[in-house]
Amino acid sequence: MNNPLPPLPKNLADALKLKPFEFEKFVALLFRAQGYEIEVTPATNDGGVDIFVYKGDYKIVVECKQYSAKHLVGLAIIQRLYGVMVAKKANRACIVTTSGFTKAATGFAHEQNIMLVDKIMLSDWIRYYHELKEFNLRKNIHLKQRVL
Fold first, then answer.
1. Beta partners for residue 55, in sequence order
2. β-strand pairing of 115-117 with 58-65
3. pLDDT for the residue numbered 9
């Protein structure tokens, strides 16, 4: 994650304005804020994985889909990610989208224990990320004041 991000999205509408690779890096930051180690793959030739997410030996492969609200993630994408999860020997797979999922995609994902993050959950993650940043900023200011 060497390339700097533009101002971080404060909501889903802002996330939709990011370039695709910036969106992937932003999703990686959201995972990091939840305590995971992350590895963002190259923008091209990523082998079907945008982000590797780790907690100890537990590995999650993540695919990001920055779609308009009406463009739902379909079954073929979920099936492809399942194949990548097996090939990469990951414990779990996750798809993060700015839209939603078709009924067939949702059914297959639940059968295979694939985590689906739709626009509602993503909005919650973005809000949590900014609340956490604000909390840490306030905590650091308070600690500095106590030291002085």
1. 58
2. unpaired
3. 85
